[in-house]
Amino acid sequence: MERIIRQFQEGILKDGDMVSVKGAIHRMKDMGDFAFVNLRGPRRVLQCVWEKAGAPAGESADVQKDFGLEDWVVATGKIARDDRSPLGFELHLTELRKVGGPSEKLPLEINNDRKVKNLKLETLLDERVLTLRNPRVRAVMRVAEGIMYGFRQFLREEGFVEFVPPRLVKGGAEGGADMFMVKYFDQKAYLNQSPQQYKQAMVGVFEKVFTVGPVFRGENSNTPRHLTEFQGLDLEMGYIDGFEDLMDLETRMFRFLFELLNEEYQPELDLTLGKGERLPDIGEPAKISFADAKELYGKMSGKKVQDPVDLSPEEERWLGQYFLEKTGSPLVFVTHYPSVKRPFYTMDAPENPRYTLSYDLLLYGLEVTTGGQRIHDYEAQVAKMKKRHMNPEDFQEYLAMHRYGLPPHGGFGLGLERIVQKLLRLENIREASAFPRDRNRLTP
Ligand code: AMO
What we know:
Helix content is 32%, strand content 27%. It is of the alpha+beta class.
């Protein structure tokens, strides 16, 4: 169907041309002399018209008696130009051939956007096989696809090389807590909570690397922004002069992603954000240190600062809104996080080692990225481990890359579903995942 839509828009196909399209029957409506039979292709819904008087010999004039919703058909018909239609044409059918269809009555009206929107989250997710077929719901997944695609495209053009880390590991690099244990023959293994160790090791191979794939976290809490399995977009780059290089790269990356979505994902943005709505200009995102952000929040909101070493969701939201109004940018970099809150591999700020050369990026007031400069020197890494009462002997695997030498480097990791959640203004992160996993959900 997409090829035919494109060929019509490019003028290759014209009014009156006969074509065949494939799709599922998304909606049918009897109009008296004719019926609408709208077909859902992989990206759009095409309006087709079945004229009762013109029904082929041997076929019933009443298309609704012979066909039902979610029947998979091959439709043949004549292109009829119609400037009122969103696609610029409709199809006047001469033949409908069924190639598949449901074996039971559908539990939901998936062609009814309003009803689907009002479904309870549990039902929306329990019936995911069907609800994902709703054009609005599936548009969310296509935006997620666009972000993965854009991430890859942008980084390749920047000279980064994609690699694939293992998911099964013996231990974790983020501190090891919250990992899922799996039985691995006669020993224990874990599902990796971050490709951290592997992306750093790959800096020693390709200098600039990235990876896209599942990351597992034993999040016990049921929040609208946590999954137990999410898609990590991770990169690492060698020869940085400081973590500012990473913030610059990430700003350019978001600009590229927003432009790509605005240019190539218009049908999806129309469906999810509203007709004609586009993603905003990235502008110049604010950069504020963690300490200053805390102080600003305390002073401006009049509220008491709770946790002195971490930002609460409320504080993140407040900062996002404050800087959105001030700079017009949906992005805010919060830099120099307290060392106690950052993993052992994070480089401390030389002028004040209570803070780190790292940052979080907020998108519309939600943390979507953690990044920073890493310790690349072996002695320095061992010293930091000892300061944290970690036994370097237990981390010999991790330290191998430091023993063999690494350039100054840093990187960042993003959560795909959180980006989608914020860009499309979804209340719950689960709506941004095709088949989400959380504390209580392992199906479908
Ligand atoms: P961090 O643990 O902050 O950093 O994770 C990076 C980003 O991943 C997303 N994220 C999540 N998304 C959904 N559900 C979760 N449970 C969840 N946990 C995290 C967030 C977060 O910003 N190794 C570092 C990254 C680095 O420094 O390169 C790391 O994993 O968007």
